[in-house]
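In this supplementary section we document a worked example of the pipeline. Step one takes a protein sequence of length 346 as its only input; no multiple sequence alignment statistics are reported here. Step two produces a three-dimensional model, which step three serialises into structure tokens for compact storage. The input and output of this example are shown verbatim.
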Amino acid sequence: MRKTHLVGTWPGLSAPDAMTTALRRVGAHLLRMTDGETGDRAVWGSRTIEWLRANPDVELIHDGVYADYGTGPLFRVREDRTLDPRNLHLNYFHTFVESFPAFKYLRDQAGHSDIRFQVGLPAPLDLTMLAFGMDVAMSDRVIPQAWAQATIDQVNRIVGEAEEPVVFQLETPASLLAVIGAPDEAKEAVARQLAHDLHEIMAGAREGTHFGVHLCLGDLQHKALAEMPDALPLVLLANAMATGFPEGRVLDYIHVPFAAANKPGSFEEDWYRPLEALTLPPEVRFVAGFIHESITIEDHRGLLHMIERLARREVDVAAACGLGRRPDPAQAWDAMDKAIALINGD
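The serialised model returned by step three reads:
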């Protein structure tokens, strides 16, 4: 049965406010949800990057704010240090402990006790790109490995604390950008390597841990980092993620962007043609991120039909990125309403 997916953030004055809104609007159509990632968490990994200012292993080389891509602070590892995972401030466990009891109460009060709590995890490559620059992210293995170990430690702490299964969503615009930018003859190999790096995090988690993957083009200030010439990069990454997935862990879904922030997806069938090569196992849900504020529900129905026909499977429906990225909260509610209409066939 078709469902919808909330990538991570959506409008709300607080986590309880955001969760209450989501449960009221789309709760019957969700399999999982975060706490809305409100406040300073709405600017994705910036909260984690800001804590590098107090990290003894690094030094600030360029200060800035997150007004646009490339305008945030930039760091480097000190010459006499290495990046110690124990010095990296990841707030996943802290926010889980704060929000999980409220999530369970609100979820059960709303009558949707089957919804699982979702924890968003910016991928190590992406945190490296944000904090140290794209050149370092593409050339240095030690820094991403430090982020990876810190992430694994947080995941296992959460699993140990939770009284029920939690879904961890690995989020990676950088991986999609790397495949887009690779030469045509190297795209598949690049996708396999990037998937392998994410698999290592999943393999480090406790047996039975559930994961999802959010591929993204970026949505800072509701603008994308890049656009795709067609759907091939996301198909290559999705296939690579499902191939060689660590035993004993569960891949629940892969979410992919068909829109690019404020730009809706293409209406040209050739753009989606690579979906014919999608090879996800049937138990892994494929979440199509094509819901957009600027096109009609009739347009969405046409896109949904085309995506499902080419992918040869029913898909879940979603926006391309978090609904909290929109400049107007009404656009988030519009996306939720469109998701329900597509699910119900209205």
